[in-house]
Amino acid sequence: MIKVLFVCLGNICRSPMAHFVFKDLIEQEGLSDSFEIESAGTEKFNALCKAGIHEGTKEIFKRMNVPYKEHIARHFQAEDYEYYDYILVMDNENMKDVLSIINKEDNKHKIKRLLDYTENGGNVKDPWYTGNFDETYWDVYEGTRAFLTHLKLRGKI
Ligand code: 4NP
Questions:
Q1: Which has fewest Cβ within 10 Å: 34, 107, 114, 143?
Q2: Whose C-alpha lies nearest to ligand 1, atom 14?
């Protein structure tokens, strides 16, 4: 079982998008039994006010035929670092915030930026600020496929 946690800032736009896009991908490939997937955010606010998935992300799910369930924002905790095998963050700020929450170095090399599995690397831009959920979707689409390819090439699945 490979345990994957997608992490962004608010846990209402990008990381739930990555969660359900990746879930759909592995279901299509018949690999669901090999994975446990979840998402979390580094800031507490949305978790405290029990915010659900952003309407812009839900609109993408519907348009791209990505099945999803409602998700209530959840704060990333230091224990998540021990539990999950891969902590896939969306941008450099998430990386800094996760390191600050775990309060130690990533000595198990679990924390990666999602797009670092792609040829071009980079940050998944935050549609909360850009308003561009399509751009985020295609980054997430490419990143999750590149991550799965990485696991296959390394013989992890
Ligand atoms: P996300 O976007 O990190 O992709 O979920 C954000 C959503 C909400 C906020 C910030 C970023 N916020 O400040 O409430």
A1: 107
A2: 10
Report residue 2's pLDDT band, with 50, 70 and 90 as the boundaries: very high
pLDDT at residue 4, as a whole number: 99
Helix 133-153 vs helix 14-28: crossing angle, to nearest 10: 50
Per-residue tokens: 84: 């999950």
CATH code (residue 66)? 3.40.50.2300
Number of domains forming the structure of the chain: 1
**For residue 83, what are the CA distances in angstroms to 86, 126, 155?**
9, 26, 21
Q: Which residues line ligand 1 (CB under 6 A)?
A: 8-14, 41, 45-46, 126, 128
Q: Is the pTM of this model over 0.90?
A: yes
Instruction: State the CB neighbour count (10 A cutoff) for residue 150.
Output: 15
